[in-house]
Amino acid sequence: MTTPMIGLIALLVIGLIGWGIAELKSKSITFVHSEEEKEGEEEMQEAFEANGCKELNLHDLLERNSTKGYDAI
């Protein structure tokens, strides 16, 4: 009976230590977008606004798909 309890407590301690390390990393590392990512975000925003500010469903996406394989050649 004590062995499963020790294992459970060990897993909880390991989980808490991992969570603490992840929190410290997230607070110490600052993330900055590159210029290419900013341009991509602007393009996505323009496409969103061009579609009437609504998300496309799967049917709409497949109609506008530009990768048709060999049919595109």
Task: Describe this structure as you would to a colleague.
The protein has 73 residues and is mainly α. The chain has 3 helices and no strands. Helix content is 67%, strand content 0%.
Alpha-beta content class: mainly alpha
Percent in helix: 55-70%
Radius of gyration in whole Å, from Cα? 24 Å
State the oligomer: single chain
Assign an overall shape. Answer: elongated
Summed up, the helix count is: 3
Order of helices and strands: HHH
What's the story with the biggest beta sheet? none
**Number of β-strand runs:** 0
- Mean pLDDT reading: 85
- pLDDT under 50 segments (min length 5)? none
Beta-strand percent range: under 5%
Question: Gap between N and C termini, in Å?
Answer: 68 Å
